[in-house]
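name: query_chain
kind: protein
chains: 1
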Amino acid sequence: MHIRLTAPRAWRVQRLAHDYELTTHQAAKKVDELTQQRDRFIGTFFAHDPEHPFHHDLVLDNSRFNLDQLAEIVFTALGARFGERLVGA
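structure:
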Protein backbone atom coordinates (compact mmCIF):
# COMPACT_ATOMS: atom_id res chain seq x y z
CA MET A 1 0.00 0.00 0.00
CA HIS A 2 1.36 3.41 -0.98
CA ILE A 3 0.70 6.07 1.66
CA ARG A 4 1.63 9.73 1.43
CA LEU A 5 1.75 12.02 4.43
CA THR A 6 1.47 15.66 3.51
CA ALA A 7 0.96 18.94 5.32
CA PRO A 8 0.90 22.64 4.50
CA ARG A 9 4.35 24.20 4.27
CA ALA A 10 3.61 26.65 7.09
CA TRP A 11 2.68 23.79 9.43
CA ARG A 12 5.83 21.86 8.53
CA VAL A 13 7.97 24.95 9.15
CA GLN A 14 6.33 25.57 12.52
CA ARG A 15 6.66 21.93 13.54
CA LEU A 16 10.34 21.71 12.54
CA ALA A 17 11.14 25.00 14.30
CA HIS A 18 9.50 23.75 17.49
CA ASP A 19 10.87 20.20 17.45
CA TYR A 20 14.47 21.19 16.65
CA GLU A 21 14.59 24.62 18.30
CA LEU A 22 15.22 26.45 15.03
CA THR A 23 14.28 29.95 13.99
CA THR A 24 11.41 30.21 11.54
CA HIS A 25 13.88 31.18 8.83
CA GLN A 26 16.13 28.17 9.54
CA ALA A 27 13.14 25.83 9.62
CA ALA A 28 11.74 27.22 6.35
CA LYS A 29 15.09 26.71 4.64
CA LYS A 30 15.30 23.14 5.96
CA VAL A 31 11.72 22.33 4.89
CA ASP A 32 12.51 23.55 1.37
CA GLU A 33 15.73 21.49 1.26
CA LEU A 34 13.95 18.36 2.49
CA THR A 35 11.12 18.85 0.00
CA GLN A 36 13.59 19.16 -2.88
CA GLN A 37 15.50 16.07 -1.72
CA ARG A 38 12.31 14.04 -1.43
CA ASP A 39 11.06 15.17 -4.84
CA ARG A 40 14.40 14.29 -6.46
CA PHE A 41 14.44 10.87 -4.78
CA ILE A 42 10.90 10.04 -5.91
CA GLY A 43 11.53 11.38 -9.40
CA THR A 44 14.74 9.36 -9.72
CA PHE A 45 13.62 6.03 -8.29
CA PHE A 46 9.91 6.02 -9.07
CA ALA A 47 9.82 8.28 -12.15
CA HIS A 48 6.68 10.18 -11.25
CA ASP A 49 5.50 13.46 -9.79
CA PRO A 50 5.27 13.01 -5.99
CA GLU A 51 2.41 15.53 -5.82
CA HIS A 52 0.15 13.50 -8.14
CA PRO A 53 -2.54 11.92 -5.91
CA PHE A 54 -3.20 8.90 -8.12
CA HIS A 55 0.21 7.38 -7.31
CA HIS A 56 -0.90 6.72 -3.74
CA ASP A 57 -3.57 4.51 -2.21
CA LEU A 58 -4.01 6.89 0.70
CA VAL A 59 -3.03 10.55 1.16
CA LEU A 60 -3.24 11.99 4.67
CA ASP A 61 -2.80 15.57 5.85
CA ASN A 62 -0.37 15.19 8.73
CA SER A 63 -1.43 18.56 10.19
CA ARG A 64 -4.98 17.38 10.83
CA PHE A 65 -4.30 14.25 12.88
CA ASN A 66 -2.03 13.27 15.74
CA LEU A 67 0.28 10.26 15.47
CA ASP A 68 -2.18 7.84 17.11
CA GLN A 69 -4.96 8.93 14.76
CA LEU A 70 -2.72 8.55 11.72
CA ALA A 71 -1.74 5.05 12.83
CA GLU A 72 -5.39 4.10 13.34
CA ILE A 73 -6.34 5.39 9.88
CA VAL A 74 -3.46 3.52 8.23
CA PHE A 75 -4.18 0.25 10.08
CA THR A 76 -7.88 0.53 9.23
CA ALA A 77 -7.00 1.03 5.55
CA LEU A 78 -4.58 -1.91 5.65
CA GLY A 79 -7.24 -4.09 7.24
CA ALA A 80 -9.78 -3.10 4.58
CA ARG A 81 -7.29 -3.74 1.78
CA PHE A 82 -5.57 -6.92 3.00
CA GLY A 83 -7.84 -8.38 5.63
CA GLU A 84 -8.19 -7.97 9.36
CA ARG A 85 -5.56 -10.66 10.12
CA LEU A 86 -2.71 -8.30 9.20
CA VAL A 87 -3.99 -5.53 11.42
CA GLY A 88 -4.67 -7.68 14.47
CA ALA A 89 -1.18 -9.19 14.57
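note: The helical segments are 9-20, 24-46, 67-82, 84-88.
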